[in-house]
Amino acid sequence: MTVTVYEVGPRDGLQSIKPFIDTDIKRQLISALYEAGIENVEEVSFAHPRLVPQMSDAEDVFTGRGSGLVMNKRGFERARIINVEKINLVMSPCETFSIENLGKPHSEVVQEYWSFMNGYPKDKVRVYISMAFGSPHSGEITKRRMKTMLKDAALFGNTVVFSDTVGVGCTDDVHTWTRMARDENLTPALHLHHKGDELQPLRLIRAGLIAGVTEFDSSIGGLGGCPFAKGSGANLATETLVRHLNSWGIDCGLSEESLNKAMKIAWNIKNKSAIAI
User: Fold this and answer.
1) Considering the domain boundaries, does residue 96 fall inside one?
2) Using one digit for the tens of pLDDT, what is the confidence trace for 116-140?
3) Is 54 a member of any domain?
């Protein structure tokens, strides 16, 4: 079995850090990740600089190779000006989170996405479903609600990423959501947060593997979390994911050793003393 590690450290990992990280450091991190053998990197977000200051230099950081997160028409226009082809979108079954994160309820989010994404190649789009496993605002996500989310996601992309934004997922939900995604002809992927115990997302990774999921998000050094979700915790570390995949006999094309340079940069960032490598 071969799986893909989808690196989100440069975007999801850095966006919440308050001291502004030098543009060159961000580019060094991205370069080190590609050097390690990672082929899929979410490099930047085109959020409003006032809301996510850490991403204000997205145009200068983007290398021309990875993907960018887009949350509105203006963000999409910025991305396309610098020839970003791989687009990530986000939506949520939790209306409170949708309003806090995207500034509008889900129905309006879909309408806005349709205004600029209609006709865009679906094979270049991943659609994130935030709070996919439950929300502190709206509780558990029903099958009916998830079916609506998946049908909406299928309007824009071929891949849907189930995001455990606040670290409450269970293995049964992984199996159910992935089956429902395939019913809508979508390829399922997982993006998992935790509250200090990486065994939780690793259990969901194993459940995903059993369910046939072959794409998993992770963040080098465990950087990140969602700035718009209180208690979202940290991302599953890429090095942890790679170590366990290899120990389980799953081919991900990576080794822990190949990640050393990127891990050193991430460590320096986490300790607020980023240096040129």
Assistant:
1) yes
2) 999 999 999 999 999 999 988 878 9
3) yes
The CATH number given to whatever domain includes residue 55 is 3.20.20.70
- Beta 67-69 vs 125-129: how paired, if at all? unpaired
In terms of DSSP bridges, do strands 215-218 and 234-235 run parallel, antiparallel, or are they unpaired?
unpaired
| Res. 230 pLDDT band, cuts 50 70 90 | low
Query: Per the domain annotation, does 277 fall within a domain?
Result: no
Rounded CA-CA distance 149/147 in Å is 5
User: Measured in whole angstroms, how far is the alpha carbon of residue 57 from the centre of its chain?
Assistant: 19
User: Does residue 200 sit within a domain?
Assistant: yes
Q: What percent of the chain has pLDDT over 90?
A: 86
pLDDT, one tens digit per residue, over 169-179 is 999 999 999 99
Containing structural domain, residue 212: 4-270
Q: Which of 75, 58, 159 is nearest to 113 (CA)?
A: 75
Asked if residue 94 lies in contact with residue 74, where contact means CB atoms within 8 angstroms, the answer is no
Is the separation of the CB atoms in 207 and 162 below 8 Å?
A: no
Question: How many domains does the structure of the chain reveal?
Answer: 1
